[in-house]
Structure formats: structure tokens, C-alpha cells
Automatic annotation (TrEMBL), chain B:
UniProt KW Lipid metabolism keyword: no
Pfam families from the UniProt entry: Fer4, NAD_binding_8
Annotated PANTHER family: COB--COM HETERODISULFIDE REDUCTASE IRON-SULFUR SUBUNIT A, FERREDOXIN:COB-COM HETERODISULFIDE REDUCTASE SUBUNIT A
Homology family: Belongs to the HdrA family.
Protein name: 4Fe-4S dicluster domain-containing protein
InterPro entries assigned to the protein according to its UniProt record, in alphabetical order: 4Fe4S_Fe-S-bd, 4Fe4S_Fe_S_CS, FAD/NAD-bd_sf, HdrA-like
GO molecular function: 4 iron, 4 sulfur cluster binding; metal ion binding; oxidoreductase activity
The entry's keywords: 4Fe-4S, FAD, Flavoprotein, Iron, Iron-sulfur, Metal-binding, Oxidoreductase
Annotated ranges, domain 4Fe-4S ferredoxin-type: 99-129, 134-168
Cofactor(s) the protein needs: FAD
Length: 547, 404
């Protein structure tokens, strides 16, 4: 998208008063459960549902927008400006927080088993629905086969539903049940016990390891015949069920990808609205003030959905933290230097950049990672702790006295969440570290720019390390990847200029990896000892671009 | 907001998360831990990332622990247990018994001299995180001074005069508005299983492997410190076991053992590994991909081996049923890792009596409300992520109870 288009799509509203409203987006039980819980604590709510009916116990206490679609969301936490579509009309609302809590989509796995749905081949949801209906005499004394996790791995949520259905079929309809699976997914609360109970009630479990049952459906609506070899005894079996039940794949709600685009949210590999990152536990996203719950964020059991509600409530009602970083510590963009290229806007992991003729920072959304400052070609962005002067002072203060024997001066830029903590632990554990190693703690390795690297080299560092979080563990989601790109690029430039690129090293490291910290730094020191002192020279005037 | 206080029992990830979240609401927290270190089992876990993070959550424990010890609203009491709890007018009065720390956290610099000099094995232990303050602890069971006052080497050598061995246990009474019970789990002790644990050096538990990988980064055989050529992982030791009456899946072991196996594979690529299992459980959001790739590196064998014997060359021999040939096979390994299950804490019953809490048939605590709330693996097996969520919800229930 070109800049002009970005500007067109993002007509920014000017400063609006802050609000304490929370928007809940969802149609089903999860959204209702959240709304009820928050309303009981007098939260100021707006509920937006794509469906036309959404019933709440205290309708007078909240605004319910039914039949609406979210069109856009601008601004940041405390001041999200939303545009919704209601019957072709545009509606605007300003809210402090947004909660996304839609219901999951179930897709029956008929085709994975070569089956065509018909009266005797049904999905798990169809069976559940029939069982909740009081009179189903047609299940009486019937033989049921459940197929689960045979074509692809299933999960505990599906198994629990199958076992509950089996138990009901056995106890209320004297039905015979067979459950065919690969790995029995009992890793849920009380499921092993439930498994034993279904077995005692007569359920037969057939587990496959390398083989698969052969499934034949005679014609499109005909009976199903299953033939297989027992894994343990090697015996041949044949099953002719009256009803075959296929398991289901649980997928993100249908509008998830739209919502991800509108709200600028990272998704996981399946498309759920939360990146697979431990920093988002349990209902957080890459954006402050936008939370996800229940089936919008993962495949969940009903118990976990309740837990999510409690965690959401904590996020919504949490008093603003006085100790939270003052805006002076957030990224600052100098409008006189900003060229309006919007590189910062495209890389900011937290959507904290407000694009306009020049970019500016929304301080409430900024998490001070420094990624924007590192990529800014106009050097218009500064962030406290990462400025040229501060880093330069820091390096100068730490530059060791020249010794008679060569002791490599190693400068390590360490992410404050991971490597800097690993360094502390390494010291605690008494690991031997290179004597010339100096640490510069940075908020995120993605905030280390080529200026910092050149500063280090100009200040006689014999080797420069950048130690990042592991891929998929970066609080800024991609800061570590930017750091890798950046360092590799500088390395190749230096190589062209005839300088050893081995003097630069980037490695991932977790906060609890003290031994690895020692190993990486000691190995690096050995390498630099082999290379000898750095020959990097930069005349003052060559360096003027940095000041 | 009125000044409210909450007592959190247990300093593992459930208690730490609960304490942190309560403190965010400006509630005064007394965090009680019976051992000398905060962090519970989770703080002993290794990061299992190879090149990418595998979402085991070990680093989150580290981060939460750091946030807790720095938080001005949280007061941590180590080496402390509850003695008596009474309740009147919605207030709890809790008698706490605190064993002395012997090492003053204010003075201790963590230099480790005491640890080096101590002549009694196991008398001084070391923390796992740099946020474990003090980083060293003296064990009354093994310390010679506690036994017969025959040694005070640590006290005499400590350059900061941080150690005072002659201290007495003290009782404290703490008034609190609510209690969160987050007393965690006990790892299954596999001595009763026919695998030779505590008989053969090279049979270890998954927890011991976690600690080794965390501290040493690579794995070696305890008997000779040599890298093992072949490692066997045995799953469900103490879980899903009708004979023991353990009718639960511990939920975390498939994930932690397979992730550790992959980690060993990446650091010690020559190692051959076999994984003996009943059912592989789904863990993590990218399980399908993980499970497919792990099978290239690790031999998956759907069988639970019988007895383990030591060979003449100090290796371990075991027999199991091979599914493809339907025959009993024998195989020899250098190291056997027992994936020990999550079981209820030893003092669950006693604690439940003190607090009038219900215990489920499986022996874990039942969820509780009305002033005393429960969180984490004291309720049953949970992963780190699940425990954090569960603790968050317990905090929310507590806030509602306190009308905050």
C-alpha cells in the first residue's frame, strides 16, 4: 500500500476525550458470559453483534448494537475510534477497550474419512444436537462408531464431547459405542476418569498407531463398513455401524481474518486472533486495550472459557498504573525531520504510530521497543535510553583501558527480557565470562540500529554481539527478526569493505540460559582472539552522519 | 479503595501470578512459601527453544518471579507454613510458622563462598533464578551446626557477615481478608515402579532432566558424566495408572518430554532417542506440525516397557511389546528418563482440614469460593499457561468477594 492510500484509509480524528467504555464483539455464549460478568461490576459496555438478536439480563445498562459489522478502528487504548456498519448506515463509537469474543466454527471431517453425510453418517455436532432433544427412540440399541483423530490429530475438547455422547447413548439408549482413534486425547480436566467410565459402561476403544481402518460407504447414503487389524493382537476385525459419527475440526470464527486486519492483530498459525507468543498469556494481543477470549483465541473447553472471562475482567478493571512509564520515555518523532515515509508505521508491532503528513506516536500504545527508531531513515525518532548520545556515553564509560596483552573488548547489546537477565544469572551461577565483555541493556534487540553497531565499532569494540529472544518469543513479535536482518546486512557491507564480518554475532537466548550465555560469549571471545584487535577506523568527519 | 490484604499460599507460578495480579489492584499481599526459594517447579524448568521458541512457558516463570520480588505491595515469607487459621467477621487470622532463613537477603551478595566451603553434602543449596533472594539457603536437615553445632564454617567465612546459624523458628500472626491457596503439586516418586529409580544412577526423572538442561545445557549420564548414546523416555509414570488409583492424565509430560528430546537432538545430534507412550497428547498451538517433525528425530514406540535391568557394561536393558511384529523386543539404553506425573501435594489433606476445603476423589483440592480461593495445580494437572490463566481467574473471584 502506498503512502497516499494509507492516508486515504486513515483519516485521523483529532484528540477526543477519554472514555471508559468497553466494546464487546461477539454473538454467542462467550460474549454473553463476558458481558454479564462485566455488567455485574457496572462496566460501561457496548455490545456489537453481527446477529440480529443478543439478549442480556440488564438491557438498560448497556448499548446493544445488533446486525452490525465493524468497518474500521483507529486510535489507541483509551481512545479507539470505531466505525460500524448498521443497515447500510455508518455508526461511530469511541471506546477505551475492545474485547473480541466470537464463537468457533466446527467443520465435520467427513471428507477426511471418505464419507458422505447422510442419515447414518453424521457429525459430532449433529449427534450432540439430537441427544439434547428429549425423544430419540431411533438411537435405541443402535451400534455407533465414532471416528476421531485418525486423519489428523484431534484434541481434548472433541474427545470429551465424544465420551459424554457415548455415555449418554449407553445409559439412555442401550446403544453400543465404538471409538476409533490414534491418540486418545485425555489431557483435559477429568477426562481419564471419564474414559474409564465410558469403558465400564461398555464403550470399545480401538487405537491405531501406524495402520488405519479401511472405511467403505456403499453409495453416497449407504451403510458404512469398517475393516481393520488390531495393533496388539494382529487380528482382523470388521464393523458395520448403524450410525457413524465423524469428528470435527475447530476453526477460528469466520470473521476472524477481517477483524485481524481491522484491528491490526497478529494471528496464530491457525488464524486465531492471538499470536502464539507466551507474552500474550492469557487474553492479551499485540495491541494494548484489545483483548481476545474463548474461541476467538484458541480451541477451548467450556472451563477455559470461564477462566478467560475472569482474566478479561482483570484487564478491564485494572487501575491505571502510576508507575507505568511516563510519556517522556515513549518514542518521540521530530516532525521537522520526519519525511513521512511511514516505515515506522509499517514495522511498529503495537500499532502505536499515528500516520499523518508526518508520523507521530500514540504514547499510550507505545511499549518503548525502539524498533521504529532503528528503522527510521531520517533519524527523526528518538527513544530514551537508545539515543545516540546515551549509547555513546555508555560505551565510552565502559571502554576498558588498553592492556599490554590483547583482551578483546566485546560489546553485547542484550534484550532486557532475555539476554540481559541471562547475563545476571550467569554471574550469579559463577560462570566465567570474558573479562572484556560489556553489556548494553536494550528494551528489544529490534531497537538496535546500524548507528549503534557503528558506534560500538568506532569506540574500539573488537566484537559486537546482539543477543535476542528466540523467534516466536519476542515481546515486540518481530523485533528479534529485524535485528537479525539488520546485523546480517551490516555484516555483508563490512565484508565488502574488507572488514571481518565475524566480529558481529547475533544469537537468540532465553532469560534462564545462563550456561549458554557463558558459552556464546566465551566462544565469541576465542574467535576475536584469533582475529586480533579490530582495525576498524572511522574518521571524525566520516562519522558526522551519526551526530 | 479500602486497604485490603490477601494471603497467598504457595510461591510457584500460580501463587506468583496471583500475587502479582492482586498487587496490581493495590492489594497488600503476603506470599507464603514453605521452601527456601520462590518459583516452585516451574523455575527449575529449562528453556526448550531450539532455534525457535516452543512455548513451554519456562521464561514466563522467571519474568513473573522478578516482578513479584520487586513489587512494593508484595511481602514474601520464605520457609513458612500455616499453623492455624481462624475466621471471624469475614477476617481470617492465620498463624504462620517461619523457619529462619539463616542468610540475610539484605547482606548476601550471592558470592557463593558458603556454598563452596560447606563440608556437609546438601547443607547449602542454590536457587534457580537470580531473583531467588538470597540465592543460597541452608538446609536444617543436613547442616552440621543444626545437628551438633560442630561446624560454622559458612558463618565464619561469609565476607558480608550475612549468615547467622543460631536462630530460632518464629511464629507470626497475620490478619487477612481473603486467602488464595496455590500450593501446587508433588511430582510422582517413581521408586515403587520397576524402573530402578534410585537404584540405577542412569534412571532419572523428567524433572531432573529439566534441571540438568537448565543448568548444564547438555545431558550426560549421572554414572560417568559421559554423553548418552541412547536415551529412552518413558511416559505416564504415575499418571493414567489404575493400580495407583491415579485416574488422570498429567497433561504436561508429553509436551515437556518431547520438547526436551528435540532440544537434546539439536544440541547433541548424535543422540538416539526413543519415546515410549500410550497416547501422545495435544500441546501447543502448532502441535500437528511439531508432532510430524518430531517423528523424524525421535523413535515413537507405543508401549510401556516392563522391568529395567542393568547390563554388565552399566547400560540399561528393557523389554517391550513391538506393535508391528507383535513380539517382545529387548533394547539397551544409556539413560532412561521417567516422565513423572503430577500428583496432589503431600500436605493437601492437612491443609484442606485447616481451611475446611473439599478434596476430590483424585486427592487434589476442589475449587473453592467464599473467602478462600484455589488456583493452579493444587486443583489438578495444568500447564504453565493454564496455571497463569487459572490464577488470574482466582484473583478475579477474590476481587469480587472483596467487593473491589
Amino acid at each position: 500500500m502506498g503512502n497516499v492510500e494509507i492516508f486515504k484509509n486513515l483519516k485521523m480524528k483529532k484528540v477526543t476525550p477519554l472514555t471508559e467504555k468497553t466494546l464487546v464483539i461477539g454473538n454467542g455464549p462467550q460474549a454473553r458470559c463476558i458481558a454479564e460478568e462485566l455488567l455485574a461490576k457496572d462496566a460501561d459496555l457496548i455490545v456489537a453483534s453481527e446477529e440480529n438478536a443478543f439478549v442480556l439480563p440488564f438491557p438498560e445498562k448497556t448499548e446493544i448494537l445488533t446486525g452490525v459489522k465493524i468497518r474500521s478502528c483507529e486510535g489507541s487504548v483509551g481512545n479507539f475510534n470505531l466505525t460500524l456498519d448498521k443497515d447500510g448506515e455508518k455508526v461511530s463509537r469511541i471506546v477505551e477497550n475492545v474485547i473480541i469474543a466470537e464463537e468457533a466454527v466446527r467443520k465435520p471431517n467427513f471428507s477426511l474419512y471418505g464419507l458422505t453425510p447422510c442419515a447414518n453418517v453424521i457429525s459430532l455436532s449433529q449427534l450432540k444436537e439430537s441427544l439434547s432433544d428429549d425423544s430419540r427412540p431411533f438411537f435405541k440399541n443402535k451400534k455407533f462408531v465414532f471416528l476421531t483423530g485418525l486423519a489428523k490429530e484431534s484434541n481434548a475438547v472433541i474427545l470429551e464431547e465424544i465420551m459424554r455422547a457415548s455415555l449418554k447413548l449407553q445409559s439412555e439408549f442401550h446403544a453400543k459405542t465404538y471409538i476409533l482413534t490414534k491418540n486418545l486425547k485425555v489431557a483435559g480436566h477429568g477426562l481419564e476418569l471419564l474414559y474409564r467410565r465410558t469403558k465400564e459402561a461398555g464403550a470399545v476403544y480401538i487405537k491405531f498407531t501406524e495402520s488405519q481402518p479401511e472405511i467403505h460407504q456403499q453409495e453416497d447414503d449407504g451403510p458404512v463398513i469398517l475393516t481393520f487389524t488390531d495393533d496388539i493382537t494382529g487380528e482382523q476385525f470388521r464393523l458395520t455401524p448403524d450410525i457413524t459419527v465423524a469428528d470435527e475440526t475447530i476453526s477460528p470464527p469466520e470473521n476472524t481474518s477481517d477483524l485481524a486486519a481491522i484491528f491490526g492483530l497478529d494471528t496464530d498459525p491457525h488464524g486465531f486472533l492471538q499470536s502464539d507468543n507466551v507474552h500474550r498469556i492469557s487474553v492479551l494481543t499485540n495491541r494494548k486495550g484489545i483483548m481476545v477470549a474463548g474461541p476467538s483465541r484458541d480451541i477451548q473447553s467450556p472451563g477455559e472459557e470461564i477462566t478467560d472471562t475472569g482474566n478479561l475482567a482483570l484487564s478491564i478493571f485494572k487501575p491505571s498504573d502510576e508507575r507505568e512509564t511516563a510519556s517522556a520515555y515513549k518514542a518521540q518523532i521530530n516532525p521537522r525531520l520526519c519525511s513521512g515515509c511511514l516505515t515506522c508505521y509499517s514495522v511498529c508491532p503495537y500499532n502505536a504510530i499515528l500516520p499523518d503528513t508526518t508520523a507521530s506516536v500514540m504514547p499510550d500504545a507505545c511499549e518503548q521497543c525502539g524498533v521504529c527508531a532503528a528503522v527510521c531513515l531520517s533519524r527523526a525518532i528518538t527513544i530514551k535510553g537508545l539515543t545516540y548520545i546515551e549509547i555513546s556515553d555508555h560505551i565510552e564509560k565502559n571502554t576498558p583501558q588498553k592492556k599490554e596483552t590483547f583482551t578483546p573488548f566485546l560489546l553485547a547489546f542484550c534484550c532486557k527480557r532475555s539476554a540481559a537477565r541471562a547475563h545476571e544469572l550467569a554471574s550469579c551461577m559463577g560462570h566465567k565470562l570474558p573479562p572484556g565483555l560489556k553489556i548494553i541493556e536494550v528494551p528489544c534487540a529490534g531497537g538496535v540500529s546500524h548507528y549503534h553497531i557503528f558506534l560500538a565499532l568506532r569506540n574500539n569494540a573488537d566484537g559486537v554481539l546482539v543477543l535476542t529472544c528466540h523467534e516466536g518469543n519476542c515481546h515486540s513479535e518481530r523485533g528479534n527478526l529485524y535485528a537479525h536482518e539488520q546485523l546480517n546486512m551490516i555484516g555483508s557491507f563490512l565484508e565488502i569493505a574488507g572488514f571481518e564480518k565475524e566480529r558481529l554475532l547475533i544469537k537468540p537466548l532465553a532469560s534462564n540460559m545462563s550456561k549458554e550465555f557463558a558459552e556464546i560469549t566465551n566462544t565469541f571471545e576465542k574467535k576475536i582472539l584469533d582475529l586480533g584487535p579490530s582495525r576498524f577506523k572511522m574518521k571524525k568527519q566520516d562519522f558526522s552522519f551519526l551526530t | 479503595m479500602a486497604d485490603k490484604n490477601v494471603l497467598v499460599l504457595g510461591g510457584g507460578i500460580a501463587g506468583l501470578s496471583a500475587a502479582r495480579k492482586l498487587a496490581d489492584f493495590d492489594i497488600g499481599v503476603q506470599l507464603i512459601e514453605k521452601s527456601a526459594f520462590l518459583g516452585g517447579h516451574g523455575i527449575q524448568f529449562s528453556c526448550k527453544a531450539t532455534d525457535k521458541c516452543v512455548k513451554c512457558g519456562a521464561c514466563v516463570v522467571e519474568e513473573t518471579l522478578e516482578n513479584v520480588v520487586r513489587h512494593p505491595k508484595i511481602n514474601v515469607l520464605l520457609n513458612t507454613q500455616t499453623q492455624k487459621i481462624t475466621r471471624s467477621d469475614g477476617q481470617f487470622s492465620v498463624t504462620l510458622q517461619k523457619n529462619p532463613a539463616y542468610i540475610d537477603p539484605e547482606k548476601c551478595t550471592g558470592c557463593g563462598l558458603c556454598f563452596e566451603k560447606c563440608p556437609a553434602h546438601g547443607a547449602i543449596s542454590r536457587g534457580f533464578s537470580k531473583s531467588n533472594l538470597p540465592f543460597y539457603a541452608i538446609s536444617e536437615k543436613n547442616c552440621l551446626f543444626m545437628k551438633d553445632k560442630s561446624c560454622s564454617l559458612c558463618q565464619d567465612t561469609c565476607p558480608e557477615e550475612a549468615i547467622t546459624l543460631d536462630q530460632k523458628r518464629t511464629d507470626h500472626v497475620c490478619e487477612t481478608d481473603a486467602i488464595i491457596v496455590a500450593t501446587g503439586f508433588e511430582a510422582f516418586n517413581p521408586e515403587s515402579k520397576p524402573y530402578g529409580y534410585n537404584v540405577f544412577d542412569n534412571v532419572i526423572t523428567s524433572l531432573e532432566l529439566e534441571r540438568t538442561l537448565r543448568q548444564e545445557s547438555i545431558v550426560s549420564r549421572p554414572s560417568d558424566n559421559k554423553p548418552p548414546e541412547k536415551i529412552a523416555f518413558i511416559q505416564c509414570v504415575g499418571s493414567r495408572d489404575a493400580k495407583l488409583g491415579h485416574l488422570w492424565c498429567s497433561k504436561i509430560c508429553c509436551g515437556s518430554s518431547l520438547r526436551m528430546a528435540k532440544l537434546i537432538r539439536s544440541r547433541q545430534p548424535e543422540t538416539e532417542m526413543a519415546f515410549f507412550y500410550m497416547d501422545v497428547q495435544t500441546f501447543g498451538k502448532d502441535f500437528q506440525v511439531f508432532y510430524e517433525t518430531v517423528q523424524d528425530d525421535i523413535r515413537m514406540i507405543r508401549a510401556i516397557p516392563g522391568d529395567i535391568f542393568r547390563t554388565e557394561t552399566d547400560r540399561l536393558r528393557m523389554a517391550f511389546l513391538d506393535n508391528s511384529t507383535h513380539e517382545i523386543l529387548e533394547e539397551i539404553f544409556d539413560l532412561v528418563v521417567l516422565s513423572v506425573g503430577i500428583t496432589p501435594g503431600k500436605d493437601t489433606k492437612e491443609l484442606a482440614d485447616q481451611l475446611h476445603l473439599a478434596v476430590s476423589d483424585s486427592g487434589f483440592l476442589s475449587p473453592s469460593e467464599n473467602g478462600i480461593f484455589t488456583a493452579g495445580t493444587a486443583l489438578g494437572p495444568m500447564s504453565i499457561a493454564e496455571t497463569i490463566s487459572n490464577a488470574g481467574n482466582a484473583v478475579w473471584e477474590t476481587l469480587k468477594y472483596l467487593r473491589i
